[in-house]
Every structure is written in C-alpha cells, then in structure tokens.
Amino acid sequence: MQYNFDAIINRENNFSAKYDELGKKFGRDDLTALWVADMDFMSAKPIIDAIKDRAEQGIYGYTSRPDSYYEAFCEWYRKRHGFNIKKEWIIHSPAVVSSLSLIVREVTQPGDKIIIQTPVYHPFFEVVEKNNRELVKNPLKKVNGTYVMDYEDLEKKVIDEKVKFLILCNPHNPGGRVWTKEELIRLGEICIKNNVKVISDEIHGELVFGGKRYTPFASISEEFCNHSITCLSATKTFNIAGLQASFVVIPNKFEYDKIDEILGILDIRRNNCFSLVAVEAAYKYGEEWLEQLLDYIEKNIEYVINYCKERIPKIKINKPDGTYLLWLDCKELGMEDDELSSFFINQAKVALNSGIGFGDDGKDYMRMNVACSRSILEEALKKIEGAVNKLEK
Fold first, then answer.
1. Do residues 43 and 240 make contact, with C-beta atoms less than 8 angstroms apart?
2. Domain with 262 in it: what CATH number?
3. Per-residue model confidence as pLDDT tens digits over 334-393
4. Are strands 113-116 and 90-93 parallel, antiparallel or unpaired?
5. Distance separating alpha carbons of residues 357 and 366, to the nearest angstrom
6. Between the CA atoms of 6, 79, 320 and 221, what dihedral angle is there, to the nearest 10 degrees?
7. How far apart are CA 252 and CA 242, in angstroms?
8. Last residue in a domain, options 285, 320, 337
9. Is residue 240 part of a domain?
10. Pair 84, 209 in one domain
11. pLDDT tens digits, residue range 134-172?
12. How many Å apart are CA 69 and CA 39, to the nearest integer?
C-alpha cells in the first residue's frame, strides 16, 4: 500500500497537545507547530483498522495481554535488530518517562548519583532531581559538528561509588546521533568496570537514516544485557503516543520485581484496550508504512538542511543519523536564549523547542520537529527566512 505523507490533517481543536496547547506553551496560537515530538502523519492502516475493530466491540473493560502481544514485540526486535528479548524480562509501563522515574525511585536511594549525557531530553533531568537523586553531567563533545561521547570525562565520574546508573539516550535526542556499536561497547565497558548500570531510552530506535544502524545496548552481549534496563516503545515509531504503552526490558530479577511491584501498587500494569491491539498490529503489520515514513522524513531533513544552507546560512544544521528532530545551531543570530525563543515565537511565528531546555549545552540551539508534510515545512522556513532577513536589515 502506498501512503500519502503529503496529506495535511487538521489537528487543531482535536485535543492535540501539539496544537491546542500552543497558547499555553508559547503565549500565542498563530504559530506553525514544529515542537513536541509527535508526527502529523496518519498512522499505518493496519493499526487504524485494529483500533476500529476493537472500538466496534462496544465493550472497553480491563484488558488481558495475550501471548501474541509479547511475541509480536519480541519477534520485531529479534528480526530487525538481533535483540533476543525473553518474555520474563518484559514489563508494561504507560510511557518511557514514567518508566525512567520509577526505575530511579525504586532501584536507587536518595542521594545516589546518576549520570546523563547533555544536551539531552529534558525529562532526564527531572526524573533524577525530582526523585532526590544527584545529577552528574557527562557532556557530549562536538567534533566537526557531530556529537561524540567524552569517555575521559566519564571515566573520572564513574569512579565515585555513589554513581549507580547512567541514563543513555540511544538514538540521541536532541543531537540525532545513532551511537555505533563500537561507541556503545566502550561506554558499557567503562560502566561495567565501575559497577554502574545503564538505563537505555531507545524509543527512537526505528527512526534511523542514511545507512546508519541502531544497536540496542543490551543486545551487545550477555554481560551488557545483565547490566542494563532498556525502555522501548512503538509509540514514537508509529505515531501512537497518545495510546500510552511502552515496554521495560529488565533481565535482573530483583530489579524486575521492584518495578513490577510499584506498577501494581499504582495499578497501572494493564494496557488500555486500544493500545493492546494497536501495538500488536504495529509490530506485525506496520513495517511497510515505516519504510515509507523513513524515506519521507529523510527527504524532509535534507530539504530543511539545504534550505538553511542556501537561504538562511546563519542557521547551521548537521544531518542527524536518526530521529525526526533537527538541532538548529543559531549562534550566528547573536541572541541570548530568551531573545532567541522570542524571535522564533513572535517574529518567525514558528513553535520550536528552546535548546536551553536540554541543558546548558543547548544554549544557542533550537529543536525542530520535521515529521510533517513538506508544505508545512516550506511555510515555516519561509517565515523563518523572512524574520532573519528583517533582523539583518
């Protein structure tokens, strides 16, 4: 089946956070929405059909997950990524951020230290600090415009016996790096040597371009698997984040039981009835849609990069290895962060995420979501170009 990603779907006044919360988030509603990380594309037809069929049953009671649900998930990761996940390692959680917060709360102690690699997805800061754990930053380095891990800095920080975990973002949000197997091996060896476990957020793992390859951290070896907890989900890949379903892969029985127990106490162990069928359909029948999506998003990425290079050269963008998020280097606009955010909101009238929200290393950057029709990107870039031109005059 051929999917039409050029189609524009009106999401305004449709209970969409991306559109209906523009006023709350940015102070005005007349913006082109390229911020929060969900897509403006209709999901795969098998997913839509599965939800429709379930809705037509007319009974929306408590769910029980069938074996086929787990089998679809496990087979997807075995086939596409060589990651052999055992059913007894899998826990359902409503969302990856919920999982991260519960892991930090249940398997570490107040005052323990947790490493993150900045600039990085802003909830990483919150799940550490708001759970009364100490945040340790291992900033990424830029080499020829590309982020790389600073292993020397990491080695200095993991020797602290109070450091218990490193939260890895693989692929990296907002930097767009898909870490190579060699990079992950070096990271893992440093952590294992110092008895530091890795919590790996791999929600963007399927969104990879240009011949790059996503490697699940836990798939590298049995030792890496036993020293890690992996957070996975179909929601980013298939644009079903509103259905609230994710997987936590926990090979360690003690850690598994701790997370399973708190999910039970909170009574959030079950899928809702629509996520149950949608996720299974995604993993069984969504690959055709995904391959077309990846081709379209990669072309969107190239379009934005080329447009900026030719017509807005003060905004620099390195092509990401993965995700549908572009990390815009706006240093040459010469603005402080509040001024930069205001410029995009009030002059360009485009809603982006401010880079400073990803840590101090995000200063002078903005994050752009390009998972939308090409025409929306064209409109947004013309607005940004016009605003920059006025600024220069």
1. yes
2. 3.40.640.10
3. 999 999 999 999 999 999 999 999 999 999 999 999 999 999 999 999 999 999 999 977
4. unpaired
5. 9
6. 160
7. 29
8. 285
9. yes
10. yes
11. 999 999 999 988 999 999 999 999 999 999 999 999 999
12. 24
